[in-house]
Design a protein that fits this description.
The protein is of the alpha/beta class. It has one domain: 3-Layer(aba) Sandwich (Rossmann fold). Helices cover 44% and strands 14% of the residues. It is built from 8 helices and 5 strands. The chain has a 5-stranded parallel beta sheet, with helices on both faces. Helix 1 packs across helix 7. The longest helix is centred in the first third of the chain and has 19 residues. It is globular, with a radius of gyration of 17 Å. The relative contact order is 0.20. The C terminus is likely disordered.
Length: 194
Amino acid sequence: MRRGATIWFTGLSGAGKTTISKAVHQRLSGAGYRVESLDGDVVRQILTKGLGFSKADRDENIRRIGFVAQLLSRNEVLVMVAAVSPYRKAREEVRSKIGDFLEVFVNAPIEVCEQRDVKGLYAKVRAGEIKEFTGIDDPYEPPKRPDVECRTDLETVEESVDKVLCALEEHGYIERAFAERVEELKYGGQRKTK
């Protein structure tokens, strides 16, 4: 029987959480695993609509995402959560409740995230349109001992994805031969030669 788990991608806005989590999702679902994704931006539009950005509201947002992730995980689903989740204590609380949990720190310097500004949020912050923005005028508490750290300013998306998949293999959530099988599928049953 396969074990479910929550893979929690945390980091600043623009660090690459959604990009990496989507790529991991694709690789796992393509290999026949049951996978679901909970993206922080999407969750805020539906499950946590009405919550603001105070510390109490941010913590409640994480608790609600964690509750859904726990339900899925215990039913043998690999759950990708991509959420800024700025406060260490809230992440640790969710980890303790879920149990089968991997914390992935998607790490890029604030300057790099601001240059990317995928959603145009940093520009709005600098224009004074957004207040209490994580990494600018609200703190981000990086994990002290993440299970995986992806340095998206120094490595490719594929390298980051491979790090996450290796961690999932090491913790017994996916089969050891997974990476090789995916390579075979990619190349039409032929092993890629170096």
